[in-house]
Each structure stands twice: as structure tokens, then as C-alpha cells.
Amino acid sequence: MAKRRDQVLTLIDLSPIAFVIGVLLLIVAAMLLVPAFHILLVGTEVDSNLRAFLMSSGAAGLAGLPMVLLTRNANFRLVPRQLYLLTVASWVIISVFCALPFALSDVHMSVVDSLFETVSGITTTGSTVLSELDKLPTSILLWRALLQWLGGIGIVVMVIAVLPHLRVGGMRLFRAEASDKSEKFTARSSNVAKSIGTIYVGLSLACALCYWLAGMDAFNAVYHAMTTVSTGGFSTSDQSLRQFADPDVVWVSSIFMFLSGLPFVLMVQFVRGRPWALFRDQQVRGYSYIVVVAVSSITAWLVASYGLPLSEAVRIATFSCVSIITTTGYVLIDYNLWGGLAVGAIFFMTFIGACAGSTAGGIKIFRFQIGALMLRNQMNTMIHPSGMFPVIYNRRPVSEDIVTSVIAFSFVFAGTVAIMAVALSLTGLDLTTSLSAAATAVTNVGPGLGDVVGPMGNFGSLNDASKGILILGMLMGRLEIVTVMIVFTAAFWRF
Hints:
Among the domains are: 278-352, no CATH class; 368-493, no CATH class. The longest helix has 28 residues, at 15-42. Helix 1 (15-42) runs antiparallel to helix 2 and helix 5 runs parallel beside helix 21 (464-478). The protein is built from 22 helices and 2 strands. By secondary structure, the protein is an all-alpha fold.
């Protein structure tokens, strides 16, 4: 059968893709030198760890430099197919190179474990296969934090900030990773990425200072600032933030986790003298409302069921709810012991996520809001068949493509979690572990439910097949699933 002209396979110009990935690898090579410098500074670690980071940095540099030099004259007016391929390829390739220190250091992690820890870090999931974190070399701990900080605002956003060649395409690339589809991402927003980077760095520094003032030592303050603002959740101890007894640390963490769940574009507008842009945003109001309701409900439950003092209940509830909703995954207490109602509420909060355009994962607040508006309008249409009920969000009609994307994403998200849960159960895991592990991977939260992957558990006991499934789930969740799926469709490779 003759091929139709509109189905003829076409070659994708890989030159700009190779160039951007090369730049990313050079950035990774530079960041790998940070733990190496730390080793030289503290002077207490074995030489094998220093060699591991230097070799990893050299490998990333040797791979990235030729790609940059050979493709520096490429056409950077990227088309959608190039953007999607670049987004997926960059995350996969960067994850492979970032995993090298785990495999080469004296921690001696397997290939699968190294990839799992790396992908969990760079997607800001926060699940870990490592135990006895208190005994790990500080250079390895530092690299885990850097991974989450690197992945917090999206790998490619960093490139946009230092790569003027992308211009408009750079913001389109940001949209390929983010879920915000509003007019804030336009051709006139070419400098937004740099502003986002500035806000991100400033928020990280402020968080580190507050942690230090709250009683943390300098290393832990910087470490937890990176994993807090990135909503990643890695810690320096198996006890997570329970290792710090001071309530001030808990409140600092809660505040900065909440702030990191806000849209960074709106924070840019806030610091540029438009504060009401943040406060008037419907998504921000919905996010704040959900946090208040969740905290109030869990507080009431803890006081009524366990007799906790009100101040302690508020502190524990605020920290736990914000940690889950923003998909950070810090743990203060074993919420598996709170009873079925509270555990069910926490499981639901796992799916919510914070605002689009933040460092948080999950479904995102705006999708729930638009879904609720669509449901209300459908009910109004059933009551008044001849009426016209447009979907209004943030005082503007919602375009058809956004409505379609919300419906499609909701379907794909539910299907992905279900398929992953079934696949995990086939590896021998029980239903609770399979379902919660799948959910926490796709939503990039970190801890699940149960004794195996729960807040007191660890993913290290899972077999390699389960870890491989979760690695794919974490990447798909970070890239909002559809971005990954589209690369593997036949239509993607055709006109």
C-alpha cells in the first residue's frame, strides 16, 4: 500500500537538540565539581569519592563539549517536535550522567539503585533507596541536594537563562515542561526564565538563612534549603526533619514549602511591583484555601482523637499537609498511625499538587478548579438546555484547548497510575504498596503508605523491576506524562 503524503517519515533536525543537551552536560560537569571541592575543603573523606566526582565531571564535560562545538551554528528556532524530543531526551541523558557518582563512590550502589536515587532527586520526588543517611559521606549527601535543586525549576529553564539563542523557543520549551498555559508565557516573556532563576536563588538563600537562625548548622541549613525550595524532600538523616527538635525549624520549613508551591511567574510579577497579581490569582486562592482546610481538618482530628495540645497539633498538621500538598515529602511523624480517615485524606492530598508553574508535582490546583467549573456548567446546561455557560477562570473565558488538555491529562494520569499499580503488583508487592508507590512516583511526592514505602519505610527493599517501573513513573510525572507519551507515538515522527 502506497504511503500517504501526509504520513511520510521526516527527519528531525537534531542539531539544536544536541547543542542544548551539550550545554546541560557542561552545567552538570560544573555542578559535579561542587562536591569535589567540598571533599577537598573538609578533608575527611576517602580519595575514592573525590575520584568519583572528578571522573563523573570529566565524563559529562567530554560528552557535552563536542556536542556544543559541533552544533553551535544550529538553527535555534525550535519547532514543537524538537521541543518535546529535547525535553524528554535532556532529562534522560542528564539523569544517566548524574547517576555516575553514586555508582563510582565508596557507597557502591548498583546501576538501578544509582538511577533510582538520581531520578528521584532530579524529579524532586524524594523517594530513596539509601539507609543510614547519617553515616553517608557528606559529599554524597550534598550531591543529592544539588540534584533536587537542579531539577526544581526544570533542567531546561537553567539553559534558557544562559542561552540567548533560544529566544521565543526558550519559553516554549519552558511550557513543554510546565503545566501553565496562560498568556504569561508569550513572545514578550523572553526574560521571564532569568527572573524565575533569580527568584529561585533568592528564595533558597532566604530559606538557608532562616534555617540557620532556627538552629541548624551551616551544612544542614544549606542542604535543607535546597531540598525545601525545590520541594524535593531529601534530608541528611533517616529521621527526616524529626532530627531537629526545634519547632522553629518546622515552621520555617512549612513556610518555605508553601511559598515554593506558588507560581514563580506570579512571584516575578510580585517583586516587579505588581503584588495584586499574586493575591488575585484564582489558583493561588484555591491553593491557600485547600491548605487551610486540610490543616484545620487534620488539626481537629489530632486534638479530638489523640488529645494533642492545640499548638502542637497545628504545627504537625501544617507541616504534614503542606509537605504532602506541595509534593515535598518531608516527614515529621508517622501519619500511618493517625487512623483510616486521616490516612485517606493524606492519600488524596498526594494527588493534589500545588500551583502550576511552581516546583511542586501532582495534578495541580488549576486542573481541579477548571474541572469543578466544567462540572458546574454541565449541571447548569442539564437544567437550562438553551443556556450559555462559558467556563470563566481568572476573570477570563477558558479556551477550548485548555479544557481539552485538562480532560486528556486527567484521563492519562489516572490510567498511568492504574497501569503502574498493576505492574508493581505483578512484581510481588501488595495492593497498598503498589497503589501508593505508583501514586507517589507519578505525583513526585516521595513517601507512600504502608510499612514498605511509607513515611517510615524505604524503597531499597524493592526489587529491580519495581524500581525500574518507578523510575519511569517519576520521569513521566515530572514531565506531565503527555510530553513523554507523545515522543513514542507514530504521529510524532510524521508530518
